[in-house]
Amino acid sequence: MNQRSKETARVFSAKLPWKGALAVCFLLFFLFGILTANWVGQEKLVQYGMLNQYYINQMAYMDLDFHAYFWYVFKQRMHVFALLAFAAFTRFGAFAFAGVLGWYAFSLGYLFVNALVCMGFGGMLLIVASVFPQIFGYAAAGAGFAKILFGQSAERAMPIGRQRMWKNPKLYLLFAAFLCAVAGIWLESYVNPVLLKAYIRRM
User: Would you say residue 166 has pLDDT above 80?
Assistant: First the structure.
């Protein structure tokens, strides 16, 4: 990347309102999830929805192998992380990041309506409880990816050569994002089930 290209990338990064764009992306997909759940209809949500009262009550007393659950969640989450990690060093990274963010926003909107229809306000609180406290680790990992993709000083292309590669700050941000993602997975596997079961028993 020549000097002129670097200057153009820096100007583009400075002018691009990426925080606002991601916020709008999240809100639009969240709204789309709400509209989709309403389109499905209350009767089908109650009958086929994921938040059936019977199964929720069963969760409060089920035994969970935390170690096996950790590796299951790890495999599922690392598929998404690997996709973002690969895309972060390409010109499609921003679209991949927005797509993942949009999918989670859509799912959250859909689940909120599903929970409200099936369980009332307590169901909405259950959805909030289901993402706590691992949301902090995942949000930190997402912030790392956003810095890689939209940071003003970040290069758009991977430096060629071993010496230049290890000097790329993107690699350190990627490693930090990985650690945050693993922390989120650990919290989701070992801490969240305990808190979630305690909340369900008090519902």
Answer: no
